[in-house]
Amino acid sequence: MVNRLWCETMIPVLWRNPWCYDINYKNKNYLFAIIASYLSDHIKEFLKRQGIHLPPLSYQSLLFDYLSFCRSININTVNTIISIGSSLAYNKFLLQQEFYGLFMKKFPELKYLDMKSIKHQIFYFPGARLRFESLCELKCDTTINSSYFYGLAQLCQYIQKIIILNIAPNDYHGIAKLIGVQKNLKYFEWKDDHDLYVPAGPDSYKEILLALEKNANIINHLNISFIFIDRTLQKVLPKLLKLKTLITNFSTFNEEQLKMCVYHDLEVFKIDHFNLKAASIIIENSGGHLKKISFELYEFEENAYNFIEDSLIFIRNIHKNCPSIEYLSLIFSPIKEHFSEFENLLKACLNLKSLLLIIFDHTYNEVTHENILKHGENLLKILINSTQTNIKEIRFCGDLQFSLEVLEEFLEKWEGHDLSILTSNSVYEGDNYKKLINKYKNDGVIKDFRCESFMNAANMEL
Predict the structure, then answer these.
(1) Pick from 148, 191, 184: nearest CA to 166
(2) What domain of life does the UniProt record list for this protein's source (predicted)?
(3) How far is it, in rounded angstroms, from Cα 265 to Cα 288?
(4) pLDDT digit string (tens) for 125-158?
């Protein structure tokens, strides 16, 4: 039902990574049938004798040589497709073995591997050495036996991106070995599962970090989420001088250690919202190329030490050191000095596209509805008077609210911006606010106006 040229163009694209789509693979009988059709007749007969159902489809009847386009394996998705053939564990094991053998023969190369829940050492299959030499991206978890990583370390030395989910305490020696032999590692991500409660031992991440140190001159993107403290991080992080993306926790660093973390190429920076002092030092020592600064948000620390002073310095360092900033998260007290620095920031940072503003009134007992409305009015006045023309999204959270009159004045002044607004305050779902918002949606001033939970509104990734 589609143009032949379109079909011939798109099939290779769709089959480059056929396991990545947001679909229910349990229902994809035809996908199972296509892969199974490549099996030889004697293998098919053997599998049928085991009680495995194989659809009556032959490789010769296919319009395309689909597997010849494929360059990726996702173990979980492949296992889901395999379960269409049989629900018995042994039968699924047999199908996995035959399917992976096919992949190693038919794939021209292997670029992406998600090996979570792997059961077969597929790097020992015939033809695997040639396929694995081209591996660019690896996703895995720490439940996998070290022997798998030893096998990969012999074949894969030019992986550019490694993503690891730590869901089980381990010695991590196999993973460290794989990391250490890499010669072109650009991106590394390690995320501890929140249910992880027993570290492997003191300085449990030491092997991983020392392996990363071997790649210090080539790693550009680092995303590390450690639940447990490891002193090795303080020694290794300052050596990663080529970082363009940095997402980690500096809570155990002292001021001198932070000043040693100098990243002149840094463009993306994410840090815990309660560690503004550390963030300010990193920003001050960056090279002026930062484009995105965001927070890892949990429940807000109401007793955050030196919050007022630290948030003031944080805003000041951004408008002094980040002229190219496009995506920015700010959290500050609604006092005169902070509003003044925010106004300076809007004048200096003219490339802003998305802005998250979290107002936290640190006066506690003096927080009244009247104060909250005043905070909102002061904030919108600054935005109205700014010369910003590129902002397409603003997120408002915390101790602030806009009256109907103030909100309408703001929307009138921002005509032509096609602005998206997210807020964590459900008051704007009231009838009067909805009527006002719909009016400016119809006029094209607002593209979207949504009320979300605090965590959603404050998450710049959503």
Answers:
(1) 191
(2) Eukaryota
(3) 8
(4) 999 999 999 999 999 999 999 999 999 999 999 9
Extended strands (E) in 182-231: 187-192, 221-225
Strand partners, 181: none
CA 279 vs CA 44, 172, 260, 379: distances in Å:
60, 30, 13, 23
* DSSP code, position 183: S
297-462: CATH, from 2.30.29, 2.60.120, 3.30.910, 3.80.10: 3.80.10
Of the candidates 82, 74, 85, 136, which has an alpha carbon nearest to the alpha carbon of residue 109? 136
Mean pLDDT for the chain overall: 91
Inter-CA distances, 197 with 45, 84, 146, Å = 48, 36, 21
Residue 2: predicted pLDDT: 72
The residues of the chain that CATH labels 3.80.10 are: 297-462
- For residue 323, give the nearest of 295, 344, 300, 297 by alpha carbon: 344
Whether 306 has a pLDDT exceeding 90, the answer reads: no
Q: pLDDT, tens digit, for every residue of 314-364? A: 999 999 999 999 999 999 999 999 999 999 999 999 999 999 999 988 765
Give the CA distances from residue 177 to residues 118, 167, 258, 363, in Å, rounded to whole numbers and listed in that order. Answer: 19, 19, 28, 52
Q: Which residues pair with 451 in a beta bridge?
A: 423
pTM for this prediction: 0.91
**In b/e form, how buried is each residue of 237-250, taking b as 16+ CB within 10 angstroms?**
bbebebbbbbbbbb
Instruction: Kindly report the length of the chain.
Output: 462
Tokens at 171, concatenated: 């010695």
Q: Answer for the pair 224, 250: CB distance below 8 angstroms, yes or no.
A: no
Amino acid at 191: K
Q: Compute φ and ψ for 400, nearest 5 degrees.
A: -155, 150
CA distance between the termini of the chain: 36
Nearest residue to 73 (alpha-carbon basis) of 34, 103, 98: 103
Is the pLDDT score of 402 beyond 60? yes
377: confidence class by pLDDT, cuts 50, 70, 90? very high
The contacts of residue 17 (CB under 8 Å, 6+ apart) are: 70, 71, 72, 74, 112
Closest CA to 143 of 161, 120, 118: 118
Which amino acid does the sequence have at 276? Answer: L
Region of residue 416 (left: phi > 0; alpha: psi -120 to 50; beta: else)? left
